[in-house]
Amino acid sequence: MIDQTFPQRVFSGIKPSGGLTLGNYLGAIKRWVEMQEDPGYETVYCVVDMHAVTVWQDPADLTRATREVAAAMIASGIDPEKSILFNQCRVPAHAELGWLLSCVARVGWMNRMTQFKDKAGKNTEKVSLGLYAYPALMAADILAYHATHVPVGEDQKQHVELTRDIASKFNHDYGVEFFPMTEPVIEGPAMRVMNLRDGSKKMSKSGDSDMERINMLDDADAIAKKFKKARSDAEELPSEVAGLKDRPEAKNLVDIYAGLTERDTADVLAEFGGAGWGKFKPALADLAVEKLAPVSDEMRRLLDAPDELDAIMARGAERAAGVAEPILARTFEIMGFVR
Ligand code: TRP
Are 36 and 9 a contacting pair, CB within 8 Å? Predict the structure, then answer.
């Protein structure tokens, strides 16, 4: 048995497919910044480009989206000095460990992945093999860094649990205590940003109408207009959280306000309870412009200097490889590879 103590290390990733929304900002990136500032954690954040190609990506779109995700992270406060920030394809350890772990994972485990079932629908014969296998690559992303904490949305919890199953089967089969049991850190419901036109659906980067989402690259006018036209309801704002029950659109707008000001929902309602939408929506629009416009301006500035952005990711990849390579090498060694 190898005795090993694991440092607290955070790993998370965003796929560069389509644009980024307020949901990515409030639900994920903002929290990643908080973890970065916590001295108890080492943080590794990745633009998971190899996951994006599990479904078709136009090459020019992949290039643009990769830079856009990196720019969004930096503009939102991920500091490439404090965190390791890079894009996945630059660190071959992900793909290599992904293969090894796909030989540990069982087909029966993959068959239980609900996201695959949802994404493939009736089309299970036509989707890529990569889409089916991708949770093993995700496990490799996490385990190549011996990550102990993975902040993700509820929809990714099952994949982190699979990562633990893979880690524990590996440890058991080879008689080692090598891979850690990674904890998912799940976003709270208030951090789940919903569609501005239908509060029962998650805000998605791929929905039909642009009015249903706030894109991280939207300018001030677009942000203000979208919040002013967001669907609400006929009642005024309640003074207590219980009053938002069965009012999904109202709840979403109040939660967004709370998220942007880093207050809790109850606190926002204590201020706005009894107000009508004619008062709340312009306040929300102003707040969102104040908070988001500097982020989108900085993103545009970074995207105008792609060489600078690429150099930051390349430097991050070197640091990432410095952590992942020895872990991969030890994995090969445990398994008996002659290298
Ligand atoms: N699967 C995640 C998603 O679709 C992205 C991802 C890939 C990820 N590898 C990861 C998230 C590792 C956390 C850790 O959102």
Answer: no
